[in-house]
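Page 42, continued from yesterday. The earlier attempt failed because a stray header line got pasted into the input along with the sequence. Redoing it now with the clean sequence only.
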Amino acid sequence: MIGGVSDNNVWYVDSKASNHMTSHGEWFRDVKDLKTPGFVETSDDITHPITQIGKVPLSMQDGQTKYLKDVLHVPTITKKLVSIGQMVEQGLQVTFNPNGCFVEDMKNQGKLIAKGERSGRMFTLDVNMPEVNSMLFTHGKGVGDTGIWHKRVGHVTL
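This time it went through. C-alpha cells are written below.
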C-alpha cells in the first residue's frame, strides 16, 4: 500500500523507462506476440523477458477510460512503470513539483487527466484498473483483494 492506495493501482512514473511495462498480463487488450524475443534490463542488471505488447485500460481522474498504448508485458518485474517519453509521444504533458506529478492531455487543451503523488524522490500515478475493479466488486470483494480473485479464476499467484 502507498498512501492508503492498493498497489494494484500504483504506476511508477519513470523518466528512465523506455516503455510502459507491467507484469499483469490479464489487464492487456489488443495483445500482440513479439516476432523476435525482447528483454528489459533493470537497474540491478537483471534481464527480464518481454512476452507480449498491448494496451492497458486505465480509469483516469477525469472519469474517462484511457489506454496506455504499447505496454510491454514483462511477467517477472515487480512494479508497474509508466514511461514519461512514451506519454509525451502520445500527446501528453507530464509536469512535476513538490506537490506531485500532473498529466495533461495536450490534444484536449491541456486538460488534467491524472495526478500523481510524490513519495520522497519517486512519483506515482494512482489510476483505477476499471475492468479488474468491476470483476472484484461483482464478487463482493474490495479492490485490494486481487489474490482471492486470481485464485477463483485459476490464475497462479506468487
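Notes: The first strand starts at residue 10 and ends at 14.
Reminder to self: strip header lines before submitting.
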